[in-house]
Design goal:
Distance between the termini: 111 Å
Shape: flat
Mean pLDDT: 79
Number of helices: 14
Order of helices and strands: HHHEHHEEEEEEEEHHEHEEHHHHEHH
Number of strands: 13
Radius of gyration: 34 Å
Helix content: 40-55%
């Protein structure tokens, strides 16, 4: 266990890492939530209506990419070789409301590149709590699975420092990196009880190439991870194109007439002229008695709309997101066509299932250690099937597996789309009850039915006398 001085020093060091990461993570958060900066090309002295158009020109594609991925990833079951262990693990999962809270854990991992789960002792079951990387900073050493230290920001409740022995409760005082230790509590986990959920596994993440600051301008000092960071330049292109579309629509979207040699006499007449898209100019000095009429042609909006859709299609390609989710161009497609359109997205989802599944299994094994039950290394989570395949085709395929390959039907129940562990448990109880009733009925039927009389055996003929 760290001494008070060592705990404060370690917290001070991790606070420096937290501060340097927070600026980048806050930028990602703004793009994720659709409150990214206005297009930089707008002059500071632009009219009010122009700045209003810039503010409403945000078309948030980053959020759609994150949502499309997060809504395809739900853990529905946990499977081991021992059903009793399954029930113990699932009790921890349900008690911590992880059916709902897993979405936040996954979304943060997709948006920022990583998120964290904190597993601590609890009564009656261990406590699992999700944390965003904006609030928790973890540093790793030789072991890539467990951090050496982690510092969590708890808002008005202060800070918490975690190591492999205890939790250190600290309060900030004075300067930005000053702490005082208020309490210490051992957790008996044997490791720093923080599990990291990664959006992708990159061997060069800690030793990446230097980013050209001139190319990325104010985006970042190092490459962004997750789904949002790589799309930020495209998101700015979409916003700028939408802004140009709104400006063209406002000023040149309709034919506008002009007149030289006549001006409105009062405000009412001027408002009427503006409402009818009429621009008035004073006559030049040499032609005061002449009046000229003319018309400005309207701007074609099709090019702006096509440019924006092209950028959205590019973003869909780079992020492996179904293009119809970004552009909305989905008309009269069959189930097979939709499945083909989402093929790349499904490959991406399968990769995330592997990465996040290992993290969930690590989290539940730690919960088992703290809860006093064993979770074997071969245990695995079962993901919900959210693919676009037709339900009838899936059920037909499962039926063929049972009849043609002699796979027990109960082993295929969890592969039915939308089925949860609670559904499977009820089905198993119902199946066992049906089997028991069937066996009882057979016994009763045998006892109630009189035995069928058997015919007497034929007499054996006597041997013939010898001559």
């Amino acid at each position: 266990m760290l001494s008070e001085t060592d705990a404060v020093d370690q917290a001070r060091l991790l606070k420096q890492f937290h501060t340097s990461e927070r600026l980048q993570l806050d930028t990602i958060r703004r793009y994720w939530m659709g409150v990214q900066p206005l297009p930089a090309v707008i002059p500071s002295a632009a009219p009010r209506e122009v700045r209003t158009m810039a503010r409403i020109a945000r078309v948030n594609a980053c959020r759609i990419v994150v949502e499309s991925l997060a809504q395809s990833l739900f853990v529905d079951n946990f499977r081991t070789a021992n059903s009793d262990e399954d029930d113990a693990v699932w009790e921890v999962w349900q008690a911590n409301k992880m059916d709902a809270r897993q979405s936040g854990l996954h979304r943060a991992a997709h948006a920022f590149g990583a998120s964290y789960a904190i597993v601590l002792p609890g009564d009656p079951v261990p406590v699992i709590r999700a944390a965003s990387p904006r609030h928790l900073t973890a540093v790793y050493g030789d072991d890539p699975d467990w951090p050496e230290y982690a510092l969590e920001y708890m808002g008005t409740r202060g800070w918490r420092l975690y190591d492999d022995t205890a939790i250190y409760f600290l309060k900030g005082t004075g300067g930005a990196r000053e702490f005082t230790l208020e309490d210490t509590k051992e957790h008996n986990a044997g490791v720093t009880p923080i599990v990291r959920f990664l959006d992708e596994y990159d061997l060069d993440a800690d030793d990446d190439v230097t980013v050209d600051a001139r190319a990325f301008m104010n985006y970042q000092r190092k490459p962004f991870r997750g789904q949002v960071g790589p799309l930020m330049p495209l998101q700015d292109q979409i916003d700028l194109t939408t802004f140009s579309l709104l400006v063209a629509q406002w000023f040149n979207g309709f034919k506008q007439r002009w007149i030289i040699g006549w001006t409105a006499k009062d405000e009412a007449q001027q408002a009427k002229a503006i409402g009818s898209q009429l621009m008035t100019f004073d006559a030049p000095a040499e032609g005061e008695d002449s009046i000229k009429l003319g018309e400005f042609s309207q701007t074609d909006m099709a090019d702006f709309i096509e440019a924006r859709e092209a950028t959205l299609r590019h973003a869909a390609t780079l992020s492996q997101t179904p293009v119809h989710e970004l552009t909305g161009t989905l008309v009269n497609l069959s189930a097979d066509a939709i499945a083909a359109a989402e093929n790349g997205h499904e490959r991406k989802v399968d990769e995330r299932k592997t990465l996040l599944g290992e993290a969930h299994e690590q989290m539940l094994r730690l919960a088992g250690d703290l809860g006093g039950f064993d979770v074997p290394d071969d245990a695995e989570v079962v993901w919900r099937d959210t693919s676009a395949h037709a339900f009838a085709a899936i059920v037909d395929g499962l039926g063929k597996l049972a009849t043609m390959l002699n796979i027990p039907p109960q082993e295929l129940w969890e592969r039915i789309p939308g089925v949860t562990k609670q559904d499977i448990d009820r089905w198993k109880v119902a199946a066992q009850s049906a089997d028991s009733l069937g066996m009882l009925k057979q016994i009763i039927d045998r006892q109630a039915t009189p035995p069928v009389p058997q015919p007497a055996p034929a007499p054996v003929p006597a041997p013939a006398p010898m001559a």
